[in-house]
Structure formats: C-alpha cells, structure tokens
Amino acid sequence: MKRFKNFELLDEIPSTNSYLQELLQKNPTLPELYGVFTRHQSQGRGQRGNTWHSKPGENIIISFLLRPQFLESNEQFVISELASIAVARCLAQFLDEDQKKQITVKWPNDIYYGDKKIAGILIEHSLTGNTIDYSIIGLGININERDFPEDLPNPVSLTQITGKQYELAEVIAFLLHEIQEQYQAIRKGLRTDLHARYMKHLYRRDGQFYPYESAQGIFKARIRNVQPNGIITLCHEDGELHDYAFKELKFL
C-alpha cells in the first residue's frame, strides 16, 4: 500500500468509518481522499444498522474522506451516486463483457452481481449550515472470499465470479481512480451525467414488477424513477405512483 498517498494500512480496527471519524477530530486538516484500509474490521457497520462480514485479508474494507462543501445539505445523495458508480466501474475492470452487464446498483447504494451482493456502502455526512462539511465513504467489497457464513442471504465475491485471485492493492488503485474521476465530474457541475449513469446501472430497472415491503405491507411494483434527492418512485400494479425514502422500503 506504499504506492498510495495519504493512506493508512491497519491490521485490525473496529470500523474504518469510526477510525477515520476519530482521526478527523484529532486532525481537522486531513486532506481530501485520505484513506484508511484494514485487513480486518471487528465491528463493521452496514446500512440499516446491520453488521458487515469480511474474512480477514481477503476483501477490501476501506473508508475515504471527501470535503464536498460545494454541495448543499439536500444534495447528499450525489455522494451516494458517486460512490456507487465508482465501485461498479472499478469492478467492471475485472470482468468480461457479459459479466459487466450483471453489475448493478440496488437502491440506494448496494452493488449487485445478478441477484447477489458484492459490495456495500456506508456514507456518513457532517453538515455545516446548508452545506456538507465533509463525507466519510465506507466501502466493503468482496474480492477473494470463497466461503461465506450461511446466515448471509446473498453474498458473492469477485473471485467466485471469475475463478481468479486478485491483488487487493491493484483493485484499490482502480477504485481510487474511479472515485477521483466521479468526484471531479461533480465538482465541474456534471451531476446530471452522474445521475444518468446511476439510473443506467440501477437494479430492477427493466420494467418488470417485483415484490417489495413497506409499512403498508407486501406489494408488487416496478421502479419508475430515483429522484436526485434519493427518493425512489415505484409504480404499483394498480398504476398508482408512490415515493419512498431510505428505510421506508425493503426489497424482497
């Protein structure tokens, strides 16, 4: 990992996001894209309060710091789109053309291969007034793991897809490049292009009806749109359109 600037490599910590948060409190001038990578995360956190499993030394567990102070507080979903597309494009570098078509983004920001989860993203923002002061992007990407715990519902790794083993540093290099590229694009105001890429990669964006669950119960619907603020719009079987925020909708 010596090839990376502003990067820490640690054998084991509870959480890369928490570690980077604590580091930032001690040193508020940490540069953008400062990264923390660990071989093992003992208390990894995922979305919806879930934990994140990863066998030590086999996968990518990493957090990055961004300072998108040019974004308003209601534009937080831009960072989610940035991270999702960066991970999807990074993984595509190691897949053939048919396999690349199987990489999608499950709303809001899980990365899927077919119907299996290959990566998870946890983003934490700090707001100052009406702007985003900084964002910590935590990424868990399944790379070389072959045997997952049976209680995980649908995991898959890059090595399970291709049958190959990978140098984690090589994958991280592609990942960092993609994060930088997407970040520079939104700095230049190209947020519409980023949103279009996100929609193109969206899981279940094929016009079919799929099962979901909300506070009102289980139903079938198809995805109509994801708004720039992250709200997803579903078309129910009766033709009615309904909007859902994160944690209001479960994919079944």
From TrEMBL:
PROSITE patterns from the UniProt entry: BPL_LPL_CATALYTIC
Family annotation (InterPro entries): aa-tRNA-synth_II/BPL/LPL (IPR045864), Biotin_CoA_COase_ligase (IPR004408), BPL_LPL_catalytic (IPR004143)
Keywords linked to the UniProt accession: Ligase
Name under which the protein is recorded: Biotin--acetyl-CoA-carboxylase ligase
Entry annotated with the keyword Ligase: yes
Highest taxon, organism lineage: Bacteria
Domain BPL/LPL catalytic: 2-187
GO cellular component terms, A-Z: cytoplasm
Annotated Gene3D superfamilies: Bira Bifunctional Protein, Domain 2
Keyword Ligase: yes
GO function terms (MF aspect): biotin--[biotin carboxyl-carrier protein] ligase activity
